[in-house]
Amino acid sequence: MERTLVEDTINKIGETITLKGWVNTKRDHSKIVFIDLRDRTGLIQIVGTGDLLGSLKLEDVVSIEGLVKARPEKMINPDLTTGTVEIEALKLAVLSHSAELPIDMSKETLEVELPTLLDYRSLSFRHPKIQAIFKVQAVVIDAFRRALMEKDFLEFQAPSIINAVPEGGSEVFKVDYFDHEAYLSQSPQLYKSLLTTAFERVFSVNHIFRAEPSATTRHLTEAVSLDAEFNFIESVDEVLDMEEYVVRYIFDEVQQHCQKELALFNATIPLMSEKFPIIKLRDAQEIIFERTGRDCRTEKDLAPDDEREICAWAKEEKGSDLVFVSHFLTKKKPFYCYPDPADPEYALSVDLLCRGVEWSSGGQRLNDYETILKNVHEWGLKEEDVALYLQAFKFGSPPLGGFALGAERITMYILGLKNVREASMFPRDMERIDLRLSSAK
Ligand code: AMO
Q1: Is 308 labeled as catalytic in the residue annotation?
Q2: Ligand 1 atom at shortest distance from the alpha carbon of 403
Q3: Domain assignments of the chain as residue spans, ordered by start
């Protein structure tokens, strides 16, 4: 008999159907046994005799033929999409046996510490709440793509092995590349910018690698970056408008397609005012000083506490969970950033913060070949390392800008997860490349 999916059972009352899936939970009353069967579309209650279902173990894979019955009014389970029906099991075939489970998968929330959850990643993926995280993430990434395709952007594939370090400094992984030294890409920045000189509008969904020796709840060593870049801009405002459009598009899609998933986490879409507020770094620092007495006015960047504070301010004063912070010190930003002509010590670079953390960086980029070349030297880079980039700007290059959003951070802060590792299927950090490095020694 053809397979029926769990979510379709509610329309098949009175029919005999075949369901296939995993035994998610089991309540054994000896003569009568209840199981919740799980497939990719959800959970459904199956009831059968002890003789038929009694020997089943959790995570066994089964094919069950059964009769779909409407549940009596008082037995309806409002927490289950299939809560109006149950299946009376008639026939059972076990397709695959599961070994005894090392973690209890039957709870609504997995009650294990994060390291254990990651140690048993193949299993934890089967838990409805963990699946919800990656459903939301898939919708976020898909929405990012579609938002930009609707604006005529072309998707490109960025290389992961690169010869230069565009974002500056220390946090790179070196690669032994035949007889040469290469790096894992920190960002597709130089590629997306140079591509605009041919395609005008480009975006990519790609992995970035950061050898940050810090074990925070917000940093991975490999993350998914949602990058966009475009040219013929009149000013940096166009970049911010584009980013705001993309973020709103993402939220709309999550709101539309992830109701069930948001409910599982008791999560809501971030609060948005009519226009995302924008504030200069220095003004943000003044506000933080006024609100908390903490003096960060000489700092080059916002510390985590400052980010939280300025988000609290934006929410209270502007009715927005999102806030753009602009004008970081030019000298502290990468060589390609565009200094504000009115105040060149500060760059037209802009971070987007939401719910207390940075979700993206972006801004206007230099497009004048001579200025870029001058900066390459001033920033201590080797001309030959960025030769391809320079070439693009030598031969005609309109004003440009762009931004990059972190896919894991968006997922984490939409759902209110405590650790960014929960929002990465296979998180890499200082202590883990699938297996725990400390125990692998
Ligand atoms: P930046 O370095 O700020 O900007 O990165 C952009 C966004 O990517 C995410 N992100 C990370 N997420 C998890 N773990 C990490 N280690 C990590 N590093 C970055 C964050 C961050 O805001 N070239 C610029 C972008 C641009 O200007 O277009 C860049 O790389 O959400």
Answers
A1: no
A2: 28
A3: 6-96, 118-440
**pLDDT tens readout for residues 268-293:** 999 999 999 999 999 999 999 999 99
| pTM reported for the whole predicted model | 0.96
Residue 38 CA, ligand 1 centroid: distance in Å: 37
Whether residue 156 contacts residue 202, with contact meaning beta carbons closer than 8 Å, is answered with yes
CATH code, residues 118-440: 3.30.930.10
Q: How far is CA 283 from CA 88, 217, 287, 325, 355, in A?
A: 65, 27, 6, 9, 19
Look up the CATH architecture of domain 6-96: Beta Barrel (2.40)
Catalytic residue among 88, 171, 212, 286: 212
Q: Is 358 a catalytic residue?
A: yes
Those residues whose C-beta lies under 8 Å from the C-beta of residue 81, and which sit 6 or more positions away, are 7, 10, 42, 260
| Residue 65 designated active-site | no
Relative to beta strand 435-436, strand 222-231 is unpaired
Q: Report how far residue 441's alpha carbon sits from residue 437's, in angstroms, rounded to the nearest whole number.
A: 7
State how far the Cα of 140 lies from the Cα of 425, in Å rounded to an integer.
15
Q: Which of 184, 141, 227 is nearest to 408 (CA)?
A: 141
